[in-house]
């Protein structure tokens, strides 16, 4: 499958999550337009507002290295059900998504579904709305 490595990187990132409060580990990995992979995990804080989600951690790592276009993102949380990105993460994903970006929602390396940004964030507010 074309996303095997991306999924495995998201699973590895989940194992590095810092979630002492929620006990809900999440991992994510993004694929840039030139096929680099950046992973991230959720990082909690006693001041909950300072917490950062796995998706944003991965995206911000890629952006901080100069990448602005993401082809795909894999997200893994609880293995009992599919863990979708929160609303803030959906908005951040939309900021850097290439057209037809795929979002891989993962339960395990063999069980996942693929969605589009339009599927999970229809009529997104984007840069075009600021013109």
TrEMBL record:
CDD domains: cytidine_deaminase (cd01283). It is an enzyme of class 3 (hydrolase). Substrate binds at residues 42-48. GO terms for molecular function: cytidine deaminase activity; identical protein binding; zinc ion binding. Its cofactor is Zn(2+). Zn(2+) binds at residues 53, 86, 89. The keyword Metal-binding applies. It holds the Pfam family dCMP_cyt_deam_1. Belongs to the cytidine and deoxycytidylate deaminase family. This enzyme scavenges exogenous and endogenous cytidine and 2'-deoxycytidine for UMP synthesis. This is Cytidine deaminase. It comes from Clostridium acetireducens DSM 10703.
């Amino acid at each position: 499958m074309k996303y095997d490595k991306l999924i495995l990187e998201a699973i590895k990132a989940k194992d590095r999550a810092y979630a002492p409060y929620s006990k809900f580990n999440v991992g994510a990995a993004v694929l840039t337009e030139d096929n680099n992979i950046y992973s991230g995990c959720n990082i909690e804080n006693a001041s909950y507002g300072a917490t950062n989600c796995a998706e944003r951690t991965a995206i911000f790592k890629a952006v901080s290295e100069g990448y602005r276009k993401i082809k795909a993102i894999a997200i893994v949380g609880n293995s009992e059900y599919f863990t979708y990105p929160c609303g803030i993460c959906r908005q951040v994903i939309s900021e850097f998504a290439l057209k037809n970006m795929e979002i891989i929602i993962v339960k395990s390396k063999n069980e996942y579904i693929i969605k589009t940004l339009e599927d999970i964030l229809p009529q997104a507010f984007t840069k075009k709305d600021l013109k």
